[in-house]
């Protein structure tokens, strides 16, 4: 195993950013392809900059984010946060006490790490279920989570969603929906209602997932609950600052579901072409992915022996894909604890600039290369930037 800690992941991320930085510096932004589906953006209008310098700005933006946020998510009141993770932490600080329990229903484990980590921080126990028939609300449960769409874009079933809301409310427990990508995937691709319209008490989405906004968390909820969460958010500095708030508002104004719909309808061709050669590849609503287990299976099928963990394989693959083909995926640039799944999102803005055949070839070649170095730990460490040598160079 090479990547063993959050610290190793920080190193890996720094190596990736270094490659990106040097590409962008020498050949411009168009020399790289961000296919993560969370490329973000900061679509300010001319007049916005001037307002950032006055006290009037935040007042104006607050009004706009309330209106646009409610349009996007439903609910009575909106709270803009620094990240989705910040919203999750703020809600847990506000609604969960030491000794309480948090239960979580999601279409497929694992949950985003911010949920169990925040539970631990307040001294709450945490249980998660991906089988709705096992899901239970206990005596001590003070908050129920539902994940609308997982980090790997597995989307919740609407019937199960409603069942969990009903169960929670029978026990008088509020429901918080982690709808980071789900607020768009669930509604645009699967035509599900907004979380707040299915009885949720709180919902949060990431304004850089499947839309071109800044990384930030947009939360909607019933007014009294939002007020409690907001109070905690302000105490601990978790709220979004005015420049982020205005960029979120502009991104919501610009949001068009067409790119998501088109990716959903056109992904099959690319996915099928890859599947012929790479049986472990899997479909997602707007693209395809390889899970860490998939890389391990491909090594096994090719008779490659390796001392790398399945996650290491995914990290090395993502770094090779970046280094050799300038394609950015989450395992290369993601934060510690983020999913190690290599997911290509064809709804990404940059996906329109890369030919499908080129993408297919890049993926196949990179897998081939991974096979050729997977048994050489030193070579893999060098790719990840975790070797002694690479660290000295930094
Ligand atoms: C991305 C994501 C988050 C966290 O978003 P951040 O911007 O990293 O805080 C939380 N939950 C799910 C399901 C996600 O996909």
UniProtKB/TrEMBL annotation:
Q: Where are the N6-(pyridoxal phosphate)lysine residues found in this chain?
A: 209
Entries under Pfam families matching the protein: SelA, UPF0425_C
Signal peptide interval: none
Q: Which UniProt keywords apply?
A: Pyridoxal phosphate
* Domain UPF0425 positions: 280-355
Q: Does the keyword Transferase apply?
A: no
**Does the keyword section mention Membrane?**
no
Extract the GO molecular function terms from the UniProt entry. L-seryl-tRNA(Sec) selenium transferase activity
- Please give the cofactor(s) recorded in the UniProt entry for this protein: pyridoxal 5'-phosphate
InterPro entries under this entry?
Answer: PyrdxlP-dep_transferase_arc, PyrdxlP-dep_Trfase, PyrdxlP-dep_Trfase_major, SelA-like, UPF0425_MJ0158-like_C
Its recorded name reads UPF0425 pyridoxal phosphate-dependent protein
């Amino acid at each position: 195993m090479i990547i063993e800690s959050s610290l190793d992941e920080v190193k890996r991320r720094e190596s990736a950013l270094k490659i990106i930085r040097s590409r962008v510096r020498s050949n411009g932004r168009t020399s790289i392809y961000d296919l993560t589906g969370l490329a973000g953006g900061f679509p300010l209008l001319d007049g916005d900059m001037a307002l950032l310098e006055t006290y009037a700005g935040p007042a104006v933006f607050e009004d706009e984010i309330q209106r646009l946020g409610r349009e996007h998510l439903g609910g009575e009141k909106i709270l803009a946060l620094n990240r989705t993770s910040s919203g999750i932490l703020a809600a847990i600080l506000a609604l969960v006490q030491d000794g309480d329990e948090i239960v979580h229903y999601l279409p497929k484990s694992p949950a985003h790490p911010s949920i169990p980590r925040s539970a631990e921080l307040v001294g709450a126990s945490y249980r998660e279920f991906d089988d709705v028939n096992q899901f239970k609300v206990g005596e001590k449960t003070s908050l129920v989570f539902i994940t609308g769409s997982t980090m790997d874009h597995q989307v919740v079933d609407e019937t199960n969603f409603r069942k969990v809301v009903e169960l929670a409310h029978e026990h008088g427990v509020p429901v918080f929906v982690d709808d980071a990508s789900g607020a768009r995937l669930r509604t645009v691709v699967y035509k599900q209602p907004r979380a707040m319209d299915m009885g949720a008490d709180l919902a949060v989405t990431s304004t850089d997932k499947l839309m071109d906004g800044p990384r930030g968390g947009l939360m909607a909820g019933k007014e009294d609950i939002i007020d409690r969460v907001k109070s905690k958010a302000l105490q601990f500095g978790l709220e979004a600052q005015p420049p982020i708030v205005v960029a979120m508002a502009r991104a919501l104004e610009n949001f068009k579901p067409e790119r998501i719909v088109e990716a959903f309808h056109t992904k099959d061709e690319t996915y099928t072409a890859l599947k012929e050669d790479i049986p472990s590849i899997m479909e997602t609503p707007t693209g395809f992915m390889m899970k860490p287990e998939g890389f391990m299976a491909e090594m096994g099928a090719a008779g490659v022996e390796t001392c790398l963990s399945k996650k290491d394989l995914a990290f090395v693959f993502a770094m090779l894909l970046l280094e050799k083909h300038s394609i950015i995926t989450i395992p290369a640039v993601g934060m510690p604890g983020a999913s190690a799944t290599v997911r290509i999102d064809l709804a990404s803005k940059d996906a329109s600039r890369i030919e499908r055949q080129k993408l297919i070839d890049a993926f196949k070649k990179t897998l081939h290369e991974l096979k050729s170095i997977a048994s050489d730990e030193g070579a893999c460490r060098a790719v990840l930037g975790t070797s002694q040598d690479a660290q000295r160079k930094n």
